[in-house]
Input
Amino acid sequence: MRLPRTHRDDVLIATAGLACGLLLWSLGLHTQGPGVGLPAGPLVLAPLGAMAAAELVRRTMPRTALAVGTVAVVADQFTRGNLMTVVMFADVVYAAVVWGPPAAARRIPVTTGLITVAVTIGFLAWFREPAALLIGVVTALLTFFPALTGAVVRNHRQAADTARLRAAQTALLAEMDRRQAVIAERSRMARELHDMVANHLSAIAIHSTAALSLDDPKTSRDALGVIRENSVEGLAEMRRLIGLLRDSSGHDEPAAAPTLDGLDALVRHTGLNGAASGLTFRLSDGRPPDTSLPAPVELAAYRIVQESLTNTLKHADPGEVAITLRSADHALTVEVTSPFGTRPGPRAPGSGAGLVGMRERVALLGGRFDAGPAPGPPRGPERIWRVRAVLPVAEDDKEPSA
Output
């Protein structure tokens, strides 16, 4: 059987304790006066050496160290005594609680407490003088208080280990939620692509094959007409897919897509929910009047604002939340800023799936997306959380307003 390796700190403690004990012995300093115990010869060093040996295994074999230390400290009482033997025994008691098995860690403080009480009562009954209480105090300092300190340290270490494990598990669950959200959305995209676009692509493939294989101008012209019709319809389906992909109502038909015209109602509704948290909301719509954007762009912008407002209710500090829309350089810019800092009270947990969804929406349209802390305005909060999305809008994609 291979013995566990002695810890470096234990070697240092044992060496330092033995050296100090030898120094006290060479100077003739003992814990008991002349005429008490054995003569002050080398025999006094036996308990000191045994205690130093116990210190070597205080961490790797704590119960063995405590047993050897107890025998050594009792034997030391039958000699002139060495202060370092007693001091090292207190450290062995502490180490037995910190590094010993859980059952021993629970029993040792109770046992040392009972021993302290018994010694105090016994010496008080024997000497019948109040000075006997000092023996009880010394016993408590050497046994009960080291054990109690070890129990406190052990509990704090266990609490810290539990907190670290809980944090690691939370991070793992959040990462699993994020991956599941991405995988589920990609699977849904694949289903929607097949259901909405496959028929048009199949028709294009069939009629293009006919146009290539038949040398008939009329047949080719008819095939090209069908190909064009299915191409246009397929493109329209693709645009509707981008906009309605996340809005299935659970039936065969997708739900109606919201537009930016509904932002006023959304902001008012969010303002009612956020009033209790000290949040106010301001919407600045800088789009040119009488301009209608493509449905996928409007849906993506609406959902980005909606998700951002939901996040402000969960995480933002009290203050103003600004929603800004700007249309320039063939692109729609959506920006939502909110106070960011140390919000008092519990925060609603989040897995990051909302940010992933917003980033995917913008990526589907070929835009740019940024989210994170940023410096606040001159007369505003010191730091803000900013969500900014730039959604490209081609000139020929703009829909004329009615």
Residues 248-255, 345-349 have pLDDT under 50 and may be disordered.
